[in-house]
Amino acid sequence: MKRFSLMLLGAAGAFFVLSPAQAADFRVIQWDNTRICQIYDMTWLIKPFPSNYKVLTKSLPNYAAAVDAKGKIAKKANCSI
């Protein structure tokens, strides 16, 4: 039974490793009431809550590009943090 459980666990792990990953959709958002900017991955099933935010960037391919974009926006004094 233990061997079967390990085999099943290995098969499930291989499925997740080999299945194509969903492309990320990183964006920089700004909360209206605090002007705090945040990096958010819009592919998540849960959208930012509450919905009082503005999207400041187009879709960015990875987290590093989003950090770079947030830094450029912060230099323009659009973000409080």
Give an account of the 3D structure.
By secondary structure, this protein is of the alpha+beta class. The protein has one domain. The chain is built from two helices and three strands. The protein has a three-stranded antiparallel beta sheet. The radius of gyration is 19 Å and the shape is globular. 9% of the residues are buried.
Helical/strand content category:
alpha+beta
Low-pLDDT sequence parts: 14-20
Main sheet makeup: 3 strands, antiparallel
Order of helices and strands: HEEEH
Instruction: Give me the side-by-side strand order of the main sheet.
Output: 2-1-3
Number of helical elements: 2
What would you call the shape? globular
Helix content class: 25-40%
The end-to-end distance, rounded to whole angstroms, is 54 Å
Specify Rg, calculated over alpha carbons.
19 Å
Percent in strands: 15-25%
The average pLDDT score comes to 81
Q: How many DSSP-defined strands? A: 3
